[in-house]
Amino acid sequence: MLDFARRTVADRELVDSLPLDPEGRTWIRLDGPGGSEAWLIGWPPSTGTGWHDHGGSRGAFATAGGRLTEQSLAAQLPTEGRRTLELAEGVDRERQLPAGKGRAFGPHHVHQVLNLSTEEHAVSVHAYYPPLPLMRRYSRTGPVLRLEAVEQPEEWE
Known about the structure:
The protein has helices at residues 2-9, 12-16, and strands at 26-31, 37-43, 47-48, 51-52, 58-65, 67-73, 84-86, 92-98, 102-105, 111-115, 122-129, 135-141, 144-151. It has a single domain (2-155), classed as Jelly Rolls. It is mainly beta. It has 2 helices and 13 strands.
């Protein structure tokens, strides 16, 4: 999936076809490899996903333009059956993903992706396998991660 994301961000014609909105994220669903789900996503300045997981799917993403910041947790979290988790010290990770850079992640990955620029859009490609069965949304206050919502695919398609 990471190879797919990297190849896709290099397709300038596809990347340039994404309409960009100054206030909200935009996206185009793509045909991912091997039955995966994929998306081309536009990120206006100062936007992000909030903390979330991918319902047990593995994934990868790469930045096509601009720069994204990924904040993640370096711990496998018991996401099923819990509403609140207190995180141990030292689990926070942060990665900068400028254009052309990407990363893959496993099925228990909890993160948020941000465009911290106040002036420039970012564009990225994301792929998930199996296709996302759901996404769990979390709020975070200090070390406490709280489940706020569970989204189903029909909510973002």
